[in-house]
């Protein structure tokens, strides 16, 4: 099983370029960062973790800029968002940012996406929270149109443009892999409809093998080959080697390990504890 690492990517934590170099030197496969454009000072939405919102959520740096820096100091390490809140981004600008990053990294970018959970944050971007999934689908479809055509047109409820020219196109063909988070039945259907992979959080996976089997069924309904799907598990709670083996047995091919919020020495020691497994 391939191992990558997730960083909260805060302004007070280990810099993404230093972290990326350390991961590549140890021959790990990938670096992932999250995204919150902001945290509303007043909110009613509870944190899904059931605790007070942790400090890193208030200090996340921009993912695309951070991953570009990480890619600039490495040659083989893949870089990705875990996850990008696509609904917060203009699709034309997002298509350009990702294409640029894919070029600058020589085809090493992966786009992890999700609908988000913080209602007030989403609505500060100018759309109703209840519409986020339809908006996400339209924006992903629109981005794909831009990547795949010399002149792109898209017409939807929320996204509309006609005959636009946007370059560069991504190096990876047909485009960088798009992976969906979440672990609900609807999440699996979204993966089957318009994504290239699935990356659920471990805390939501009570029966991973059964969920993968269900996902394969949805893929077949869409006339897609299940063997082409990228299966990654985001390990936030279950990070021990025994758990990783269980996920591998269930069918996952990559584990993305959440890094603790520690200083540089402690973080590197944590990473080193996975070298044998890697």
Search tags:
alpha/beta, TIM Barrel, two-stranded antiparallel ribbon, 36% helix, 278 residues, 10 strands
Q: Which residues form runs of ≥5 with pLDDT under 50? A: none
Q: What's the mean pLDDT score?
A: 96
At CATH level 3, the topology is TIM Barrel
Order of helices and strands: EHEHEHEHHEEEHEHEHEH
Helix count, DSSP H or I runs of 4 or more residues = 9
| Rg value | 18 Å
Number of domains as seen in the coordinates: 1
Helix content: 25-40%
Content-based structural category: alpha/beta
CATH C-level: Alpha Beta
- Biggest beta sheet attributes: 8 strands, parallel, barrel
Instruction: Specify the CATH homologous superfamily.
Output: Luciferase-like domain
Q: Bin the strand percentage.
A: 15-25%
Shape: globular
Topology, number of strands: 10
Strand order of the largest sheet: 1-2-3-4-7-8-9-10
Distance between the termini: 8 Å
CATH structural architecture: Alpha-Beta Barrel
What's the arrangement of secondary structure elements?
Blueprint: E1 2-7, H1 16-25, E2 30-33, H2 63-72, E3 78-84, H3 91-104, E4 109-113, H4 119-123, H5 132-148, E5 152-155, E6 160-164, E7 178-180, H6 185-194, E8 197-198, H7 208-221, E9 230-235, H8 241-250, E10 254-258, H9 264-272
Parallel strand pairs: 1-2, 1-10, 2-3, 3-4, 4-7, 7-8, 8-9, 9-10
Antiparallel strand pairs: 5-6
